[in-house]
Amino acid sequence: MIVPWGETRLVQGNEAVALGAVAAGIEFFAGYPITPSTEIAELLAKYMPLLGTKWIQMEDEIASISALIGARLAGAKSMTATSGPGFSLMQEGLGYACMAEVPLVLVNVMRGGPSTGLPTQAAQGDVMQARWGTHGDHPAIALAPSNVRECFEMTIRAFNLSERFRTPVILLPDEIIGHMRERITFPAEGDLYVEPKPVPDVPVEWYEHYHVTASNVSPMACIGSGYRFHVTGLTHDVHGFPTRKEKEVIGKMNRLKHKITRRLDELEDVRMHDVEENPVTIFAYGSVYRSALAAQAMLKKRKKRVGVFRPVTLWPFPDRTVKEELDSKEVVLVPELNQGQMIHEVERMTKDSVRVVPLHRIDGYEITPEEIVNAVLEVM
Amino acid sequence: MPVPLPYEYKYLRSKKKFPHVWCPGCGIGIVMGSIIRAVDSLSWEKDNIVMVSGIGCTSRMPVYVDFNTIHTTHGRALAFGTGVKMANPSLNVMAVMGDGDSLAIGGNHIIHAARRNIDITAIVVNNDNYGMTGGQFSPVTPEGARTSTTPYGMIEPGFDVCNLMEGAGASFVARGTVYHIMELDKIITRAFKKKGFSVVEVLAPCPTNFGRANRLGGPVEMMKLLKENTINISQAKAMKPEDAKGKVVRGVFVDKVSIPYEERYEKLCEKARNSAGASR
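Predict the joint structure of the above. Result:
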């Protein structure tokens, strides 16, 4: 038994991701060594042969994500783990998976960038790359865990969403979350929901690999199951064959968009702590959310009250909820481990009268609760 | 070009996807015919065949054949194929690629697929240049040759694909041409049967780009060049070195027994389970 169901253990964030992958039923892992994500590949190299599932170290990150797509087309639930420079290389395959609608999970443990940057230190500099990194219009789903238990749960959720939406899902722990250790209690085995792989039930001759459905997602046959189909990165028709016909191109592109934008309720996940009643709110995600909660408690002791708003699903951005909750605030403080990325999304969704104040830290270390307290006191 | 035989239609998406994109005189369709005849001779089920490709003229082939087909990104056919084969080792996986696709942008993947010895057959159609983008030089363009990006002649030495693959550890390495079609059918059949990584380099003309840029004549003249400039490996062995000079050798260069990667991995799983069981 690899996942210690129902038990309480001291677990590292990356370890929890590996265990979450096993819990979600991972069948194929391909990766390339890169700090600070290596524990995920190392632990799966240990677990997966025991389960008879497939693990491979490829020659680079491009090969890794390519192998992932091939494996999922052949029916194996697939995941890879990387960090900044590897994430850049994987953008090619990520775009292909979006276009060809292949489910997969990509874990990017965020380190300082650009380029080789700060390999062993934390950052949140890849959140925009997770949204817009690969070329062309494309759907994006990205989740940011803030503790070790969430690393476990959110890896499973990432697999589930990728299967449900037939699209790649990105998990974005920052290095602090990936490397921290916490005591967590694992759920009982039956308490987890694992999304089944959607399988077509139509006769072979009726099968369309990109059948138009009300949900904009169609069941996906796998190679070797008797359904023969064509897959390409070229813009394609419902059968998967290349097309340049206006109607088919527009239909495909809109379907890719709408399968996310018309099902936002299933994707949106925000945590709010005393947001409604306070005119000042801290908007934070990932490891910074922990500091924000600590800062909120410290401020409370000083009789200063603030709210904390956390997007758990970073992409799609919770537009509606941010507008509803933050548009009437006096101040929204946005602490981030970068030079200001998600802050622009907050600005986009709030009117000019809301003061949206940045707080950056870019030296690879965490934003402390004290820093947030000081920033709040300055603006209050 | 051989006349398509009725049984070949069985393997084509003949009603949907033709006419094809290839230029008159192109050799890629001949390679496709050879692949189909090899598949037919082995009685492989279409459901169990996977054809992966990258980007380029050769990589358009998967659209036309009625197998499981994946047209991937530039250079990555073997990486995608590795995932397919690992996920389901019972599938017969082949990768069809051009010279630029497999050896420039895909160079890293092809040497590692060969080293790993994964059971995939790589068909490298070598037409000396990048056809689809308008005839730029590739890693096999001969020195001195003119292409749209070597207007003053090619100054880089080219790869010898077969030597490269032998050095990287492939289990089966062979070269054929689209002129010597019966020979090519046999080579591709042997490559498909081979357990482990097999590579077939197929010399093919590109009259539209390479032929025109180097004044090699039309399709017929370029086919004649394949006939005149290549010799069979048994002929080469019988010839004096000075007579064989400048000729490209056809035939099978490597055919060895080596356990394919996916079988090694199965054994690794057994070993891991046994040692975990023993430690309990």
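The interface with chain A takes residues 16-17, 46-48, 50, 52, 62-63, 66-73, 76, 79-88, 90-91, 108-109, 112, 265, 268-269, 271-273, 276 of chain B (CB under 8 Å).
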